[in-house]
Protein: DUF2851 family protein
Amino acid sequence: MKEDFLYYVWQYKLFSKTALKTSKQDSLVIKDVGKRNVNSGPDFLNAQLFLDNQHWAGNVEMHIKSSDWYLHKHETDVNYDAVILHVVWEHDTDVFMKNNKPLPTLELKEIVDKKVFKAYQEISKNYKSWIPCENQISDLDDFLILNWLERLYFERLESKSEFITELLKKNNFDFEAVLFLLLAKNFGLKINGDAFLQLANSIDFSIIRKVRFDKKQLNALLFGQAGFLVDSIEEPYYNEFQKEYEYLSYKYKLRPISKHTFQFFRMRPNNFPTIRIAQLSALYYKYQNLFSSIMEINKKDHFYDLFKIKIDDFWKNHFTFDKASKSSSKNISKAFVDLVLINTIIPLKFVYLKYKGENFNEEILKLIQQVSSEKNSIITKFKDLKLEANNAMESQALLELKNNYCTKKRCLQCAIGNYLVRK
Structure:
């Protein structure tokens, strides 16, 4: 058993409340269980009780055994001086406060709802499974599942928004500048995401604003800062950028990052950093106010149109500057746009609407539900369990469920686990 079960039982009062007695047989009436404390200190704060008809207000601490109080050295911690009740599964020793009076203790073992405890044991014994409820989840009501997935999706957005908010603080809440950082990271995908973010951070966005009207300068700036213009290559297209970057780096006092920051090994050629930089440059050349354009769009197909950009003809038969290849299209695919929507545009729109104080739930949901579900091992496994993601909102929510609840065995904080324990 874990203490989270005790927290759960206490918070929802899943025990017999008739004629409650402490370990010293004092009468106990619980007026308010208090508020769960997720920081250091007692487990529940500001509880209110009647002990032998005397009103008490203070904190509640919980343990599997009452002797854990000493094991955790609470007797020497002033944060526990205001504890008015010790709630334990098993009372194995008296605990004394600094005034040498015994701390009132409530033992739960004999008064917890037996059905609740049995259901908790059923889930607990499956903790080594891929998810603890894998034998039950397919039988649950669709309404329960869909409501929980929607909540999980917004939890995931809140988590992603923390990173975006930090970027906004560092950039004086310049949403256009932060969009550039996020798009750059997304264009790098998983393997080169950090390298692309490093590239974007190496350029003050005010410089992007100045050169984005000049196609050659914008290309030279991005390729130069990425370190791809330091070699000697007999190629006119390359030499033009090299010369232009030499001028830009002198004018704006730029320092390139190393080209070795980027990975090419075992990557599909269409995902080579050179191709993604060319696409990012073409996007910013085409749209002078990209952030505004993105915030105004709410339909997936319109985003597909937005990302229809044309990169220089040079890249039709090149993946790198120094080697020609068979001619092929280097257009941005719809699948890639879906990833950008999931990982950059919708999280940024979520933060922006919150920043403006607007109601965002309906708009965000309508957009994310238009996007196709992701395909990965976690989503496939849920499908095997007959829980299929029909769109990106549901696939994102399932990732949140697996990574932040199932893997961490947070069944009692999960709507599914909560239902199974209390049904």
